[in-house]
Every structure is written in C-alpha cells, then in structure tokens.
Amino acid sequence: MGFRTPAVMVCMFLALALAVSAISVAQSPSTPTFSKDVAPILYKNCVSCHRPGEMAPMSLMTYELARPFARSIRTQVEQGTMPPWHAEAPEGTFLHERRLTRAEKNTLVQWAANGAPEGDRKDLPPGPVFPAGWTIGTPDAIVAMAQPFEVPASGTIQYQYFRVPTNFQEDKWVQAIEIRPGARSVVHHVLVFASEPGGTARDLPFVPIAAALRGRAQNAAAARGPLIATTAPGTNAQVFQPGSALRIKAGSVLTLQVHYTATGKLENDRTSVGFVFAKAAPKQEVRSASFVNPQLAIPPRADNHRVDAQIEFTENAHITALFPHTHLRGKSWEYRLTYPDGREEVVLSVPRYDFNWQTYYEYSKPIAVPKGSRLVATAYYDNSANNKSNPNPNIEVHWGDQTWEEMQYSGITYTVD
Questions:
Q1: Are 337 and 300 within 8 A, CB to CB?
Q2: Rounded to the nearest 5°, which phi and psi values hold at 369?
Q3: Residues 225 and 246: beta-carbon distance below 8 Å
Q4: Given phi > 0 = left and psi -120 to 50 = alpha, else beta, which region is 305?
Q5: Domain 141-416 = CATH 3.30.230.10
Q6: Residue ranges of the domains in the chain?
Q7: pLDDT tens figures, 191-212
Q8: Alpha-carbon distances, residue 415 vs 70, 192, 290, 321, 362 (angstroms)
Q9: With contact defined as beta carbons under 8 Å apart, do 307 and 313 qualify?
C-alpha cells in the first residue's frame, strides 16, 4: 500500500468539505417556503384583495393558486408596486398602512428566486376568515340606491351620481361607516358625500387663502356636502376612534359618486352604505370637509405642472386624515403645514400618486394645528405623452368630474379643539 503525500491529503479533505458544504446549501433550511414563511405574509398583507370575489385579478389564498405568480410577485415587490402604498413617511405614521417590512420583502423575493417551494404543509397556518357580510358588524342603518344601475358590458361609463335620502329623523352620532357595492367586480370606487337639509354648509375652522376660490369652493361643498366615506381597491371601512364620532344631521341626503368599469359582462349594481351609531354622545366630534382649486388649467404636454390650494385655520384643531384626489394626470402630492411661528412641516407626501388607489390617509396620532396655521396642498400633473394613462396630451385640461378632466381636491377629517 502506498502512502499519500500531505498535500494530496489536504486536497482530499478540502474537496470533501466543499462537497458537504454544497449539499448543505442546496438543502438549507433558510430557504423560504410557502407554508412556513410566505403564507403568513400573504394572509396578513395581500389576501384581503387577492381572494375570490374581490377586486384583485388573482387569488393568493393557497399554494396552488399563488405558485404560478411567484415571478410576478417578486417583480411587484422589488419595484414597490405591491402592496400599493404611496405615502412617504416613517412606518406607523398612518393607520391601515399597506406595506411590507424589509424582512417580508426579502422573504418573498428569496422564495420566488429559489423556485417557490411549498415546504411542509404541516407548517401552514390557518387561513384568514373574512366576514361574509359587513366588516363593521350589523349596521344600525342601511342607506341604498333606490334602483339598481345597469352597468353595460363594454365601453367607457361616465361617473354616476345617486342622491339618496338618509331618512334620519334625528341627528345621529356615527361610529363607523362602510360602503358595500352590489356588484363589486364593476365598481372601481365610490365616494359618499352628505349634505345637510337646505344645502347649507357648516362653519369650518379654516378659510381658503385665495378669495377668488372661496365662492366656488363653498358652493361646491354645499351642493354635495363633505366627503364622509370612500371605497376603492384596498380601502377600509371608516371606523372612528373610541370617544369620537361623526354627526350626520336629521334629513341629510347622501350623494354617491360611483366609478363603474365594464368587464365584458352586463351587471346590475345597487350600492349601499351602512352606519353603526355610537352608544352615547362622543367626547370629540369628528368632522369632514374639503378644499379645492377649481381654477386649475394644465397646459398641453406639460409633464410636471404644479397646482396649489391653501387654507388658513381660524381655530385650534387637529387633522385626523387627508384624502388627496386627482384623476389620470395626477402625478404626486405634498401637504405642507406652516405654523404661526414660521416653522414648516410636510405632513403628507405622496410621490407616486395612483388614481387606481383612492387612499384616505388616517394619522395614527392626529396633527395639532394651532390657529393661524396654513396648510398648502400641492398637486403635480403629467399631461405629456409619456403618461400612459393620459387620455389626450394635446389639450389644456380644466376642472371636471370625468376622468379625462382633472381635479385638485383634498378631503380633510379633523376635530376642533
């Protein structure tokens, strides 16, 4: 028997070590699996939309349904397209944030990059159970469109407006509001406004800065009243914090603005609005209002046109939520608050506004606004041919309800100190 030299022995040991290491890597338990690692993330963040009967185009409720979309999931997560969250702020600034942690993103990306393995089904957590009816519980009152609206199978459908009386015989303190489309597949979004008897508008704790805007803005607010609820892909029911509630006066009338989208099939929709009333008068009244710039004029082919609207607070108040709204040319938003001492603060930045996601940004901690503070809402518009959603880059665009027109509209929810 011959003897091997030390150098040969070292090489053999190194080769053996590398082989064992390769086997270890291939079978690494750190590779994410659907059952153990991915399903909890999808259940928490995605399947409220990505399930049968909801707006998302595919379901992610099971491995068999999610596996074909692994590559797409990776791309959407890496690009930041999904989950759809467009505000730029530290995590926890807003309630109901639709975004993943860095660790969750890495898990989804690594799962897809490693072949999207299923893993041991014993590791699969129980799937979420969604309420079959109202998410706010059984409503104390339901207000619905008088007649169903027939949604055609094809073509562009103009915004529809439905005026619906509440028939409230006395003022109501509302703890929660939820909108339920009758045919969810054809309803893109619904905005619900509430006008008081006689079309009068309540006194606001702020005034528009530009006098030229004041009359038109107040008239628009009086006609439909303040925005009180929204529903769109990914939005939640409006639930107010304990001890606070929204007052809807007796005899108020709701206006439902409904954006329908044809799906190739004739549908009938009868959207309804459910209310849960507070058990007692609240310690704090929540109010809703809006401020706008109806004089906007966006030049043809302008790719970054700025439009401002500004209000000044005449009373001490707290802002609880903001709702930026533009149409297909809307590009980004910024809300800047200037305090009486000259200090400035950006209270909401939406650098990638997306018309398809109508988000009411609700603050985890309401923003204190002293009397004399000014809030400037700045919207930027892309009316160029580079905007793939632009209906026509060669025209000057003005205010209008239809998606091929534009708005510079800010909903605001607040309390008065």
A1: no
A2: -125, 105
A3: no
A4: beta
A5: no
A6: 29-123, 141-416
A7: 999 998 876 666 788 888 764 4
A8: 45, 20, 14, 10, 13
A9: no
